[in-house]
Design brief:
single chain, mainly beta, OB fold (Dihydrolipoamide Acetyltransferase, E2P), globular
């Protein structure tokens, strides 16, 4: 059987403070939700926003970073993969399912309540035990504010 692709890219805001726990083996686990927004035109031609909620799970060092730096409202860029798990509900005996995104890499884009100007840098963390850290300096990034590009120049 050929190898498949299971890759997810998300950019959104954390819905509530993450839940942190540890497994019996000592692995740190962080569970949290992320909201992504999409804009669509309705039948009358008006733009409407639609939010989609995603369940995320991070392990080890990435979970520790989530514990220390991620709060409700934090903007994140996530790379991960989809996983659906199932279990039997103890009360009803029914089979339950939950689809989650397992976080492989995470970039912190902003702090809760921070304005757009404060989130020009980013910190990238990966799923490995030793998280990679990439702090970008705002002075090394080009500034396109003076180029005169408007929304009419964007083809979509």
């Amino acid at each position: 059987m050929a190898k498949g692709v299971n890759k997810v890219f998300l950019l959104g805001n954390v819905g509530k403070d993450p839940e942190i726990r540890a497994t019996t083996g000592g692995t740190t686990v962080a569970s949290f939700s992320l909201a992504t927004a999409d804009r669509q035109k309705d039948a009358q031609g008006n733009w409407t926003d639609k939010s989609e909620w995603h369940n995320l799970v991070a392990f080890n060092r990435t979970a520790e970073i989530v514990r220390d730096y991620v709060k409700k409202g934090t903007q994140l860029y996530i790379e991960g993969k989809l996983q659906t798990r199932s279990w039997d509900d103890k009360e009803s005996g029914q089979k339950k399912y939950r689809t989650e995104i397992l976080v492989n890499e995470m970039t912190l884009l902003g702090r809760p309540g921070a304005g757009g100007g404060e989130s020009s840098g980013g910190s990238t963390y990966s799923r490995s035990n030793t998280a990679s850290f990439d702090q970008r300096s705002s002075s090394s990034e080009p500034d396109y504010a003076d180029t005169g590009i408007t929304d009419d120049d964007i083809p979509f």
